[in-house]
Amino acid sequence: MKIDEMSTKTFWKGEYGITGVVEDRGALYHVNLEIQGSRVNSYSCSCAKGNSYQGLCEYEKALFEYYMEQSQAKTDQPVSTSTQVRTMIREYTNREVARILREGEEEPVDFLPRLLLDRKDVIVEFRLGRERYYVLKDLLAFAQAVEDGAYVEYGKNLAFHHNVEVFSPESRPLVQLVLELVNTYREHYEQFQRSAYVTVPGLRELNLSKANRDRFFQLFLNRTLEIEDYRGVRRKVVVCEENPEWVVSVRKAGKNGIKVLVNRKLSSFSGEQHLYLLDSEHLYCCDEDCSNTLGVFFQQMTQGIDAPYEVSVSDKDLPLFYERVLKKLEPYGLLDIKGINLENIRPVELKAKFVFESSGPREIRMRPTLSYGEYQFHPVEDEHVPRTVCRDVPGEFRISQTITRYFKYREPDTNDLIIRDDDDAMYQLLSGGMEELRSLGEIYLSDSLKHLTVLPPPKVSMGVNTSGDWLELTIDAGDMSMTELTKILWEYRQKKPYYRLKTGEFIKLEDNGLMTVARMVDGLAISKADLGNQKILIPKYRALYMDSLYKENGGVSFYRDTLFKGIVRGMKSIEDSDYEIPPTLQGVLRGYQKTGFRWLRTLDTYGFGGILADDMGLGKTIQIISLLLDEAGRTSEDGTRSTSLIICPASLVYNWEYELHTFAPALTVLTLTGSGSEREEALHHVKDDLLKILS
């Protein structure tokens, strides 16, 4: 036996089609295989056993083994090493060499920072050493030495092979951060110079950006840092992750003004997310809320070249300064106020009133009024507000933004805000806008507007009963008519958030069972006319669909009678059914084919049709034969036996006849061939209980 020819085709999902010619003792056999990996999905051969259900014939096996050998041979080609693999080998080798070199060296090296704080920048320089420390004069050379694993001498008492692992454990995170920042500096410089061959200027210190300040100080929480401030004073401080208890003094100044003072020995600077406050012993890393609240205040008071540390406020600006600034400092206990009565400087509270009216179901009119004490004004006329009024600008802006969100038009004569002939805008206002406006002020509704409300969605229930070959579906929407429910379902399917009744009221179309009803109506192709019926007839085979849809979505009361539940249970427990395999095929059928038989028998029991859609070569024919054989052994209530009809392509008529004689010899089979008139004549002279095959 040998393989004369073989060709392959690639299908989707990793499947291959193998076509070949196998020679055995002078005879040629044409073989077709469909495989996926090492599994044969389907097979055929021109030999007598090539299409049986007992597995591959000897020629199909030969072609399959030949294909696998050829595939393996292709994978034995020489392989070149990837660049990434060479990099891995080099890096791991360098690390191992560095480790060996460190074994002969002394204690780990410390890498220590020193902060230089001026009025604007946060600058860091570095020292390294063991007992004696040397200032690092070139960070670029240092980074290159670490990258190359170079041996560098810094003095008589310090020389070592550079590697991150040579530094003390507490120093390594800082070394890694410095290497990252230095490499970023080099890359940016080369990018701006547009040449990779330009000489990068030396770098002795790092000027930390706001984001890098946060990263740097996170490495030193609860540790000591050496700091030199803008006065040239050096000291060591502990980095604390807490809010300070500093004092901000507020004192009377002049006739009616005040002055605000901060200790000049204190300083501050900002990160991207944190505010940092420095005194003689501690560097405080404030939490994010404190940083957001106090950041602007300390930035203006203590940061920059012209930091004042003392500011004054005139009596005219006192209310606003208190409302916008001092009130934000109060919760942190920082204020030391003497000689000032806060009640006298607190501004008058902003109040809002919203009056709603309606001249009909298609219109909503709103008249807003803002007030400070006795003074009242319309939001759109705020340019006339006296300058003596201390205005709550953020409060007014919030109210203005809310009004603009729900009202797009204003009546010129009265300045009333109007929604007219716009159901979407009305629903948005009634469903959410009213509560939002109520949180900003008082709301007054006229009697004409009280009928414009938003109602919850209707509570819908469904029921299904089994009646012969049909399911009787009922849908109940309570007091709502089916005509109204049909319109609601239509709006819901259009993804509208509401449905408006003829009374002017809105129904909120949230997922409260409406999704289940809408999907069932769509999935079962129920027409508007059907919805108007008291009972809707559904084919019985849709039972599984209805049951799964209800369980996936829920939200409605769904009554199912006993027969309906029995059908669902039967279809879901096919493998555990009591249907017996015909005795003559008990040892022939495979496990999955027995399951296929029970599935077909279950469909037949409940009066369902079905399609057996197994892949080619898995034995669909023998599963059908097992069903026909089982059916032939049954009799109806009147004592008659059923008849079966097989319709297949003309080329397969005799194949069916052969398979039936092979696996079900007890069945009486009639093959109807010839012209149409000949087959019609033959049908008049046969018994009804015969199994007939025709094309």
Parts with pLDDT < 50 across at least 5 consecutive residues: none
The coarse overall form would be: flat
Q: How many helical elements? A: 18
Q: What is the radius of gyration? A: 44 Å
Secondary structure class reads alpha+beta
Question: Termini, distance in Å?
Answer: 38 Å
Average pLDDT figure: 85
Strand residue percentage? 25-35%
- Total number of beta strands: 35
Biggest beta sheet summary: 9 strands, mixed
User: How much helicity do the residues have?
Assistant: 25-40%
Features:
alpha+beta, 33% helix, 695 residues, 6-stranded mixed sheet
Give an overview of the whole structure:
This protein is of the alpha+beta class. Helix content is 33%, strand content 26%. It has 18 helices and 35 strands. Strands 5, 6, 7, 10, 11, 12, 15, 16 and 17 form a 9-stranded mixed beta sheet that branches. A hairpin with a 6-residue loop joins strand 23 and strand 24. Helix 8 runs antiparallel to helix 9, helix 10 crosses helix 11 and helix 11 packs antiparallel against helix 13. The chain is flat. It starts with a strand and ends with a strand.
What's this model, at a glance?
This protein is of the alpha+beta class and 695 residues long.
Describe the secondary structure blueprint for this structure.
Blueprint: E1 2-10, E2 15-24, E3 27-36, E4 39-45, H1 58-74, H2 83-103, E5 110-117, E6 122-129, E7 133-135, H3 139-148, E8 151-155, E9 158-161, H4 172-193, E10 206-207, H5 210-218, E11 224-228, E12 234-240, E13 248-253, E14 257-262, E15 267-270, E16 275-278, E17 282-285, H6 288-302, E18 310-313, H7 318-329, E19 335-338, E20 350-357, E21 363-372, E22 375-377, H8 393-406, E23 409-410, E24 417-420, H9 423-438, E25 442-445, E26 454-455, E27 461-467, E28 470-476, H10 482-493, E29 498-500, E30 506-508, H11 514-523, H12 528-531, E31 536-539, H13 543-553, E32 557-560, H14 562-572, H15 591-605, H16 620-632, E33 644-647, H17 653-663, E34 669-671, H18 676-683, E35 691-694
Parallel strand pairs: 5-11, 12-17, 13-19, 20-25, 26-30, 27-32, 33-35, 34-35
Antiparallel strand pairs: 1-2, 2-3, 3-4, 5-6, 6-7, 6-10, 8-9, 11-12, 13-14, 14-18, 15-16, 16-17, 20-21, 21-22, 21-24, 23-24, 27-28, 28-31, 29-30
